[in-house]
Design a protein that fits this description.
With 623 residues, this protein is an alpha/beta fold. It has three domains: 57 residues, no CATH class; 164 residues, Malic enzyme, N-terminal domain (Rossmann fold, 3-Layer(aba) Sandwich), CATH 3.40.50.10380; 269 residues, NAD(P)-binding Rossmann-like Domain (Rossmann fold). The protein is built from 26 helices and 14 strands. It has a seven-stranded mixed sheet with strand order 8-7-6-9-10-11-14, sandwiched between helices. It has a five-stranded parallel sheet with strand order 1-3-2-4-5, sandwiched between helices. Strand 12 and strand 13 form a beta hairpin. The two termini are 43 Å apart. The protein binds oxaloacetate ion and magnesium ion (MG). Magnesium ion binds next to helix 16. Belongs to the malic enzymes family. Keywords: Metal-binding, Oxidoreductase.
Length: 623
Amino acid sequence: MSDRQMLTKVYNFLKLAEFRKHPFFENVRLASMMVIAFIKRAVFPADFTNNMDQNASATDEKIARPRVRGVDLLRDPLLNKGMAFTLQERQMLGVHGMLPPRVMDQQEQVVSIMENFNRWQNDLDRYIYLMALQDRNEKLFYRVVSEHTELMMPIIYTPTVGLACLKYGLIFRKPRGLYITINDKGHVYDVICNWPIDDVKAIVVTDGERILGLGDLGCYGMGIPVGKLSLYTALAGIQPHQCLPILLDVGTNNESLLKDPLYTGLRMRRDNGPQYDEFIDEFMDAVVKRFGRDVLVQFEDFGNHNAFRFLEKYRHDFCTFNDDIQGTASVAVAGILASIKITKKPLKDNVFVFQGAGEASLGIAHLLLMAMKAKGISEEEGLKKIWMVDSKGLIVKDRPAGGVTGHKELFARDFKPVSTLTEVIKTVKPTAIIGAAAVTGAFTEEILKYMAEINDKPIIFALSNPTSKAECTAEQAYTATQGRCVFASGSPFNAVTMNGKTLVPGQGNNAYIFPGLALAIILSDIRRVTEEIFLKSAEMLSEMVKDEELAQGRVYPPLSKIREVSTKLAVGLTQYAYKNGLALKYPEPEDIDKSIRAYQYSTDYESFIPQMYDWPAVKGSNL
Ligand SMILES: O=C([O-])CC(=O)C(=O)O
Ligand SMILES: [Mg+2]
């Protein structure tokens, strides 16, 4: 052992000895402190002792300071560590004897969770199992989700979350989030005040009218804000206590729910009169009053009409965005930008047909137009490349019944009416077709084969969720196009092997955007979420796809990297926000990457053993 190692040992021993309560150490405490001071100042160069201290603190566990103890600790998912409480902690905190004797570390707990997870035979049971874990031990839940993201995302999020919403009453175990009903109108702030945590930074809210592609699920829609916010933490590391899922119950028009004896929401038809708007206004004011002007409100799965209206109404005065319009647009445009690297056809040479003209399609079309303009294509030229089909056929200027209104107007073409998607595609001869209207199987074999006939590498995006609503499956798309298409879907599909080549479909889901975006908004205090932010996000995401991934047909980074992608997106957006005067947090961090990573939620358990110390002996004091 070298002298230096020897002295390090003595140093560490004495440092520990300082805090020992044995009378021997009590007696030598002063002496040992003097020796420590001597070693520090006289023997070691300053940088060496500094390093030693730094290393010690880097490996030291973080110490939690719970205000609760005893059985309450085991019942609080933010604090509970289950069998990972050490023997000392169990005794100090009054839970000794209330846990099986064995002490496990977190990694052993993960193994046990995975064994249990794999025992379940279907995804809904796996969902219920994971939600129960989230309700009893949050750190362990996020550790499992972070370590097994590819396996867990389809369970806690799309598509299984859709199934869970359909059965939300039946699988209800423990409430999560806040339910505010139209009957609470006039008292919305009071209800929000019941939420026990002040430090809320992000809310995901739905009124349940259009849950994924499943339609009106009323109060059962709560699964969506819960799932989205789980990804805030799992993918972007946003602190879970800062997230609040909210369901606004204004009734439902879903007949089977109204008749369902187990339905857990208000048994009444949707209130869509003026009081509905007043209620949403009151809600927006109440969240700001309770949590501050900087609280982020993500609108999710509202009906078409309301989604657009509320976005326009609130985007200028609140920190808000609509994930189905803007988040989906951003991820789809990212996919298109990556696709044209595969097809080698510049954006200006592409023609897009949209199946559907709802939130997602119109959002994508608008952002696509912006992306074209950013590449020097005029609006007039850009509009000529976009064709939209809704339930009445091609959207044309002189449509007979009712004409074309609202956001569709911009995209109405000066063209003869064409009634079916197949006819439109045969007339327009697009390079890309994008489906987002929850019409299962809308991309028929005939359409897919035709796309392969007129294009070397057709772009096929079947974005509707969940899987059961997809316009076609990955396998159908690859088979009909002899593996030549660039395919992306909203819900996950497995890779397909054709002629010895593995084709990997991209998951064009807004999950690649909203967690990282929310992280940037929260940390740099962005108050107005502009359209440019979504274009910037799309560009950055498309740049994150590596050449070898493009070669496999991927237009998004692999799901296994989505956590790193979200962090990088947050870093890039934060830089962008500071540069463009959108970030209000002052001062700008010197190292944005470092400050974001320092904030992020850690799934490591904290120690509950306080660091003991003595008061210094004061001459003349008898304390
Ligand atoms: O939740 C998802 O998977 C994507 C989304 O926002 C939707 O389909 O409404
Ligand atoms: Mg949605």
